[in-house]
């Protein structure tokens, strides 16, 4: 689907999307580079946003994590920092 502020399109099925602009590219070792980007727009499905806020509710967003050529889901919550904007009753 079209982006609002950048040329690359977005993926409709993705619950949380960031439109970004590249600010710096630093060459790495071999064929790798470090890319620093500025987020210029955030798109989030309403069901993953904590009601009445602009905060993503981590209990509702279930991203797929890629690690060492394997894909994983998130496990159960084990805690949060005291400064969390989305903390609440923690069921352990």
Automatic annotation (TrEMBL):
Its cofactor is FMN. Gene3D superfamilies: Electron Transport, Fmn-binding Protein, Chain A (2.30.110.10). Keywords: Flavoprotein. SUPFAM superfamilies: FMN-binding split barrel. InterPro entries: Flavoredoxin (IPR052174), Split_barrel_FMN-bd (IPR012349). This is ASCH domain-containing protein. It comes from Demequina litorisediminis. The lineage of its organism: Bacteria, Bacillati, Actinomycetota, Actinomycetes, Micrococcales.
């Amino acid at each position: 689907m079209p982006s609002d502020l950048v040329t690359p399109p977005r993926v409709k099925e993705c619950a949380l999307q960031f439109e970004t602009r590249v600010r710096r590219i630093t060459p790495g070792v071999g064929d790798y580079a470090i890319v620093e980007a500025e987020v210029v727009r955030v798109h989030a499905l309403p069901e993953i946003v904590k009601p009445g806020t602009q905060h993503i509710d981590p209990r509702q967003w279930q991203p797929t994590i890629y690690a060492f050529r394997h894909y994983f889901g998130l496990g159960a919550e084990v805690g949060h920092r005291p400064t969390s904007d989305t903390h609440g009753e923690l069921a352990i």
